[in-house]
């Protein structure tokens, strides 16, 4: 599944619902589905608030399923992250003016099995998340 949408905050819910519908074919538990939806919300919110600084642009979302693993990629073409290690620290935020908690990456890391973050300053950020659905029938 490939999806692109405008970086307005209202589209965060659209992204959540779309990925949830896509993941449903794996028959995840309610907890697994909530984990996926929350991780997507965090990644999309980061793209909108931090990547684009609330400027309107495009967010790209891709999801694939191989066997019983869903892979979700959220990508922006925004400002990028200058210090990825610092950005991954719990409670760090590049937007303290918005009273952000700085827990986005920490939450994503907790909810998925694997996460990769690639970022280039002035080019954008790509977050790849993988989650194994424990009791699903493999889908190819």
TrEMBL record:
Keywords: ATP-binding, Kinase, Nucleotide-binding, Serine/threonine-protein kinase, Sporulation, Transferase. Gene3D superfamilies: Histidine kinase-like ATPase, C-terminal domain. The keyword DNA repair does not apply. Residues 31-135 form the Histidine kinase/HSP90-like ATPase domain. The keyword NADP does not apply. GO terms for molecular function: ATP binding; protein serine/threonine kinase activity; sigma factor antagonist activity. InterPro entries: Anti-sigma-factor_SerPK (IPR050267), Anti-sigma_F (IPR010194), HATPase_C_sf (IPR036890), HATPase_dom (IPR003594). SUPFAM superfamilies: ATPase domain of HSP90 chaperone/DNA topoisomerase II/histidine kinase (SSF55874). One of its GO terms (biological process) is sporulation resulting in formation of a cellular spore. Pfam families: HATPase_c_2 (PF13581). PANTHER family: ANTI-SIGMA-F FACTOR RSBW, ANTI-SIGMA-F FACTOR RSBW-RELATED. This is Anti-sigma F factor.
């Amino acid at each position: 599944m490939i999806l692109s949408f405008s970086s307005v905050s209202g589209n965060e819910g659209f992204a959540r619902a779309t990925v949830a519908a896509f993941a449903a074919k794996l028959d995840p538990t309610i907890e697994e589905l909530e984990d996926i939806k929350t991780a997507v919300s965090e990644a999309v919110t980061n793209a909108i608030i931090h990547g684009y600084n609330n400027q309107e642009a495009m967010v790209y979302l891709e999801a694939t399923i191989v066997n019983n693993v869903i892979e979700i990629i959220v990508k922006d073409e925004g400002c990028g992250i200058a210090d990825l290690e610092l950005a991954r620290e719990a409670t760090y935020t590049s937007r303290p003016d918005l009273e952000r908690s700085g827990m986005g990456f920490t939450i994503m890391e907790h909810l998925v099995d694997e996460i990769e973050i690639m970022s280039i300053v002035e080019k954008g950020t790509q977050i790849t998340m993988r989650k194994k659905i424990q009791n699903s029938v493999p889908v190819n």
